[in-house]
Amino acid sequence: MVLVLSLLYCFAHLSNAAIPCGTVDMKAAACISFATGKDAKPSAACCSGLQQLAQTVKSVDDKKAICRCLKAGVKNFAGVQEKFLTQIPNACKIKVGFPVSMNTNCET
Prior knowledge:
Order of helices and strands: EHHHHHH
Distance between the termini: 20 Å
Function: Plant non-specific lipid-transfer proteins transfer phospholipids as well as galactolipids across membranes. May play a role in wax or cutin deposition in the cell walls of expanding epidermal cells and certain secretory tissues.
Oligomer: single chain
Signal peptide: 1-17
Radius of gyration: 12 Å
Keywords: Lipid-binding, Signal, Transport
GO molecular function: lipid binding
InterPro entries: Bifun_inhib/LTP/seed_sf, Bifunc_inhib/LTP/seed_store, Plant_nsLTP
Largest sheet: none
Number of strands: 1
């Protein structure tokens, strides 16, 4: 959920989100082991899930919604480290268009 881990939260649960937070959480869940430093690199499942999420983005509002979901999701996992979280987009070859961080402002 890192994402995104950001991402990821980025993701306060929104009732009007085009992409439900449950979907975001499911797609990003495999990234937690890397985001907490347990795995040396993001798993294939992590990258695949995030790539699938990226493909669902149709608008800026979709990006914001995913960001909010990821940001909220990251808070549910103790041990997520910023230094690993920020590496996920490059490691998975995903362009998100904004810095991935637990402090990302999803509204900008």
